[in-house]
Amino acid sequence: MTELKNDRYLRALLRQPVDVTPVWMMRQAGRYLPEYKATRAQAGDFMSLCKNPELACEVTLQPLRRFDLDAAILFSDILTVPDAMGLGLYFEAGEGPRFSHPVRSRADVDRLPVPDPEQELGYVMDAVRTIRRGLQGSVPLIGFSGSPWTLATYMVEGGSSKAFTIIKKMMYADPEALHRLLDKLARSVTLYLNAQIRAGAQSVMIFDTWGGALTGRDYLQFSLNYMHKIIDGLQRENEGRRVPVTLFTKGGGQWLEAMAQTGCDALGLDWSTDIADARRRVGDKVALQGNMDPSILYGSAERIEQEVADILAGFGNGEGHVFNLGHGIHQDVPPEHAGAFVEAVHRLSGQYHQ
Ligand code: 1CP
User: Fold this and answer.
1) Residues contributing to the annotated binding site
2) Could you tell me the CATH number of the domain that includes residue 217?
3) For residue 1, is it within any domain?
């Protein structure tokens, strides 16, 4: 077993006792940090940064040098998987991600390969191994993937979307084509996450950023069902320790009970769900991660501290809480505000872990 100097994050995910509530921030490596912008400029573009293990390691470690975070997250992107399937990912300046070959028909779906994570995605595994060496056992490393549904939205729409009309057209006009795509993605993501675990990821998180765009029945069938398949196929132990799995569906607050039945260890919450209510509903089955509105970080240190205190009180006494934002940190947040947030979580949470 590898000794970790700080294993609060892993312990909280397994609802084991901790001294203070662990905290990390979604998108903690990113454009709100001037040092990130400098490294990214050195790499050229975003995908070159992801594909360079030394630089990906550098940007993963940058937020940990500034703040007392309890976990590191692999620097990569969810869209590496569709890129490895041959869709031609590129980033238009200021426009977000785009695919040169979107998936529009059943024939397109059937042509897609299931990528070998050690080949086409070998650069991600190299980054995981490099980051583990760089962390020197200080805090655990989180690996991640997009959910099949969320990846499919980008692959079918050809990029980011607000209304998801193209993929919903496929869903209602040719549901079998979409199921075949989601099934292929579930197989690809299972292999990808297991490879990250073997390379050294000590916990994994599945980001279902767009699950909340679905109706209840469609969510169960087209998103949760495939995340469940992934969880069933994951290697849950490595280096003599359990590898906890966190499921995050943005806008998924109404489905927590169903999510908690997938065999995951924790659920990520966005800020639209009350954490006290979430704990009453599923807290005997899974840990909870979240859930401060990232926009609160625009407020003063006092305002941030008040919100942290309210969320800690909402979760209440006992184990099973990982503090986080309800979604990624915004790029124009002053880094000192992120520091005040992390510091407040540690300072105010000891009383709940007596
Ligand atoms: O210009 C830049 O530097 C690129 C911006 C950027 C960054 C910093 C992108 C492009 N991806 C990332 C890193 C990233 N993406 C991480 C790194 C680790 C960390 O958290 O520090 C992670 C976990 C992701 C995951 C990701 N990418 C998600 C799921 C989580 C979420 O935020 O909902 C999604 C939906 C993406 C797609 C994506 N990649 C990049 C952008 C700008 C987007 C979003 C586009 C959209 O809104 O549709």
Assistant:
1) 27-31, 77, 154, 209, 327
2) 3.20.20.210
3) no
In the predicted structure, residue 139 carries a pLDDT above the cut 90:
yes
- How far apart are the C-alpha atoms of 327 and 26, rounded to whole Å? 6
Q: Which residues are annotated as a binding site for substrate?
A: 27-31, 77, 154, 209, 327
Report the share of the chain in percent with pLDDT over 90.
97
Q: Residue 92 has what pLDDT?
A: 81
Phi and psi based region of residue 111 (left: phi greater than 0; alpha: psi -120 to 50; beta: remaining) = alpha
Whole-prediction pTM: 0.97
User: In angstroms, what is the span from residue 102 Cα to ligand 1's centroid?
Assistant: 19
In a domain, 147, yes or no: yes
pLDDT tens column, 237-293: 999 999 999 999 999 999 999 999 999 999 999 999 999 999 999 999 999 999 999
Number of compact structural domains in the chain: 1
Q: What is the extent of the structural domain holding 155?
A: 8-353
Q: Is 200 left (phi over 0), alpha (psi -120 to 50) or beta?
A: left
Centre of ligand 1 to C-alpha 328, Å, is 8
Which residue in 296, 275, 291, 289 sits closest to 340, CA to CA?
296
User: What distance lies between CA 79 and its chain's CA centroid?
Assistant: 12
Residue 19: pLDDT above 60? yes
Look at ligand 1, atom 48, and give the residue with the nearest C-alpha.
160
Q: Is residue 292 part of a domain?
A: yes
Q: Does 109 map to a domain? A: yes
Residue nearest atom 8 in ligand 1 by C-alpha distance = 30
In the structure, which protein residues have their CB atom closer than 6 angstroms to any atom of ligand 1? 26-31, 40, 46, 73, 75, 77-79, 96-97, 144, 160, 207, 209, 328
Give the Å distance between the CA of 143 and the centre of ligand 1.
14
Give the length of the chain: 354
| Least confidently predicted of 84-93, 111-120, 224-233 | 84-93
